[in-house]
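pinned: reference chain
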Amino acid sequence: MHQVRSARRSGREDEDMVSIAGELVDGTITNHLVNWMSPFKERITVVTGEKGVLVADTLNADLAFHANADAAINLWESIASFRGVSEGEVVRYSLQRKEPLAGEHEAFRDAVLGTGTNIVTMREGLYTVRAVEAALESAREASVVDIG
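pinned: its structure tokens
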């Protein structure tokens, strides 16, 4: 089931918070929370897979992989089912930290010069706008909206 909820609490015309839960065509489950109400910035993306979790903090330019442990659980089966997986190794990746606005200016410069390789196409931009419009419609109508 796909669910979108939104809230307007600060008196602004636009939403202060949007929560989206959904499923992609390939069965991937997604969850998004966009929050303009809190007094702090958080830009975290978590990708969970069978072998572990990749955590990207784009505000602080941190990237880490938390592996699932391979150790066997020697507990009663009924208790083990509540435990989930254990954390294995954590690998932190070294990323070049760049001031975000400087990065945006450099990307714009490169696009103008025709040397940019990280450019969003018009089609990708259109898909993004369609997804946002569908999310807002879903929240407004309290129903599933198929982007198709």
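why pinned: DSSP finds three helices and seven strands in the chain. The two ends are 16 Å apart (CA to CA).
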